[in-house]
Amino acid sequence: MAVSDTVAASDAGAPRKQRFSSDLPQVWIGMALIAVTGFLPSFLGNSYWVHTFQLVNIYIAAAIFQNFLFVDAGQKSFGQGVILGLGAYVTAIFFGLHDYSFAMAAAIGLGAAALGGLLFALPALRVQYFHLGFVTLSAAIVFPQLLMTLDRWTNGINGISVEMPELHHEIGLGLSPLTILVAVYPMLALWVHYFIRRSRLGRQMRVAAISPEGARSLGIKPGLMRFTAFVIAAIGTGICGILYLPTVAFVSPQGFNVELSFVFFFAVVVGGRGQMLGPIIGIWIVFILPNIALAGFVEYRLLIYGFLTLVTVILFPDGVVGTIERWRARRGVAGRGEQAFRVDAFLDRLKGDRVAEPSGNVAIEVRGGTKKFGEVIAVNEVDLTVREGEIHGLIGANGSGKTSLLNVLSGLSRLDSGSFVINGREATRLAADRIANMGVGRTFQTPRIYPQFSLWENLKVGMDARTGDTGSDMDALARALEQEFSEDSAELLSHGQRRLVEVMRTVLKEASIILFDEPAAGLSQSERANFSRLVRFLSRQMGKTVILVEHDLDLVWGIADTITVMEQGRIVASGNPEAVAEDPAVQHMFIGGRRA
Asked: Degrees (nearest 5) of the Cα angle 254, 259, 265?
């Protein structure tokens, strides 16, 4: 019986789990709301509301891309109004002032918006979070002044008027081509956001946003992810700017003040960060209420924006949609105790007749490796050889340099002197993502678990990091894990279970070398036994090379082929477990039991 068949049989009588993510239902609800506000005023023949909701829908689309940039890519940008303004203004310049065709002018405007996104992406390579927000905020403040200063090209404070009657011509049921465009585009933006989020690229972006170190250990370049996100958001927002031009039929510097960028940002916060429906509800609250319902107080718009945001955050800490979604998720969340995540049943089905033994080939070789942090020498002239297929235990007291050595081997830190090779390839100066793509996987002392993902998606990011073809057994394992854990939350997992998830992620990555950093910490006795079986399975059944940093000496002595002992950054003993146990240099480690 296949492993997937086993899981299917066990699930046959189980109650249906609550959906982990409501993204797809929110997309459908969002499309329905956009359709109502986009088409209903035209059906009723109310020209004022037709124009109003055309602008609202354009802003909804821009807020959707702000939401993507803010949450999925983790980039705090206060300058998306600038991107929309570039798309609108450059299109107006070439169409309204230089008589280009609208299609050609729009293409140039979209290029300008994309270029603006590239300029925003450059500081994102060096600064993050709200520091980046301040950089983009400065652009939003300067942009209107720049438009007035460059009056030779922009027509200055007088702005640019355009006429496109063909887009406003009624084609039936009160609808015009423009009405259809500005209603369909935010729907398309919703789907784009949804499909990116569900894609390999989207998962990698979110991993890079949450844990840059975890991303690099999976072969992901966080800088590239941020750069890509800005370009995607800029193109999407630039199209909003192009649609803005025929909708308003006029552009001026006053139309792209800093408050426009605030509208998009506050809409995401008020509606619910990361929620697909959030930008729609957010724009309704932040834009419609102050600009339409409270039109008599239009000069106090910024104050109203701030007040609405403050009140909403107090009443709905996760935004309107976010708070409702959290309440929904909590209703259906249930833990399964120590059985919440077990992998032994899955691995039993993968066992074959092949038993691999450590070979004489060298997987990792360190020569004279030294790493300093100021005056502190964390790794001191280390020479280390790890054979292919072996389980190599790395033990020592806290502060002995074990994790520092793992960080060097995985590229998260660089040697000050010395060198190391991985599978015969010089790797001393390689970045962490390049080392990961050479077939190196690792876990961390604090497990890298992503609560925004389901339990299966936490595992799937390991599959996303694969660099080669997979075997049918591993594909079967992945299908079984997906069927079992696709709707489970990772938030209720114990610390020990989170460690097992991270370990299983490295298995799905199919790394040939796996670096474990204290993986048994926090595990119960049964979980430790399962972990020992897993490590033996990786080495003997799958031929993986394992370096195991661990304080539980009983566990290490039970599974290791070779043990290396570190003390104050130096290697003081190395060899098979029996020889190391008899070495006088390490006898003091066993006083009071086998724990280092």
From this structure: 145
